[in-house]
Write a structure and sequence with these properties.
The chain has helices at residues 9-27, 31-37, 42-49, 57-66, 72-85, 103-111, 130-138, 144-157, 159-162, 174-178, 184-197, 250-266, 270-282; strands at 112-119, 167-173, 203-208, 222-227, 235-240, 243-247. By secondary structure, the protein is of the alpha/beta class.
Length: 284
């Protein structure tokens, strides 16, 4: 198993879950049998193997024995991984304002090495100014104190990108650039920031112009997260009203990757995109 020393807890859960699923398959143990061994349900085994729940060390130890893992070194490595996967991430301090369906995304985002995102409605969160973010968040009719904390959370999420740790490829629909979120001055500040940050080596920024029409076949926004650890599969995040989809099956990831590739082809080049943003700025 690859060294997961730099991974966050969400990535560690996915890594451990994937390893448990591999060991179960190798041992020829049905999920129902594994569930009985730990006094749980098949859905619990599924959540564990998908990395979508915490791990009790006792459960992991039982499963390892069931799967025939008796070597002390291998058991210790996996049990240590289980302990580290249960450690809360920094974003847990925002648990009172973070919906449960969004918390896994923040964890995945913190573990990702590369993110590709398409946004047809708003500027992507990782590229929003504080004023623009406050205006977007305020659309949800949150109390002022919640808006302030959500803006703080978004700014903290941006830190890995600003520090050059995370590579970001953002494709933004021209509609999002023209939508007067927060008024002309807030939008102006946001577009000026985009023009400045577009020159950073860790960002590829493209704009999908009006004339692209429906050539790209992407009816809504989505994000593809890729991790440095080769054992972690790509994850596609699709946000909906009040919930979200997390897709990691190869056929789903391939479908969204193809859609992203098509978007990149029909969108303006990075240099053309900066020119287009400048033109929109001149018209404000």
């Amino acid at each position: 198993m690859a060294n997961a020393g730099a991974s966050g807890p969400t990535a560690l859960r996915i890594l451990l879950g994937s390893e448990l699923r591999r060991l179960r398959d190798r041992a020829g143990v049905a999920s129902a049998e594994a569930a009985r061994a730990i006094g749980g349900s098949e859905s619990k085994i599924s959540r564990m193997e998908l990395g979508r729940s915490g791990f009790k060390e006792a459960d992991v130890a039982i499963l390892l024995s069931l799967y025939g893992i008796t070597a002390e070194e291998e058991r210790d490595q996996l049990l240590t991984l289980a302990r580290r996967a249960n450690q809360p991430g920094w974003w847990h301090s925002y648990g009172d304002i973070l919906p449960s369906w969004f918390q896994p995304y923040v964890g995945l985002e913190q573990a990702a090495a590369r993110i590709r995102t398409y946004e047809p409605q708003f500027i992507p969160g990782l590229l929003q100014t504080e004023e623009y973010a406050a205006s977007v968040i305020s659309l949800g009719d949150f109390p002022p104190e919640d808006v302030e904390r959500r803006v703080s959370l978004r700014a903290t999420r941006q830190r890995r990108f600003r520090d050059g740790v995370l590579r970001l490829w953002a494709v933004i629909d021209e509609v999002a650039l023209r939508r007067p979120v927060g008024g002309p001055e807030v939008l102006r500040g946001q577009l000026e920031y985009l023009m400045a940050v577009a020159k950073q080596p860790g960002l590829t920024l493209q704009v999908t112009p009006f004339e692209a029409g429906a050539l790209h076949a992407a009816p809504g926004g989505f994000t593809i997260l890729r991790f440095a650890d080769p054992q972690l599969t790509d994850v596609v995040y699709v946000e909906q009203l009040g919930n979200a989809l997390y897709l990691d099956k190869r056929e789903d990831v391939d479908r969204y990757t193809l859609a992203m590739d098509r978007l990149s082809v029909v969108s303006a080049t990075p240099d053309e995109s900066i020119d287009l943003i400048g033109t929109i700025l001149e018209g404000l």
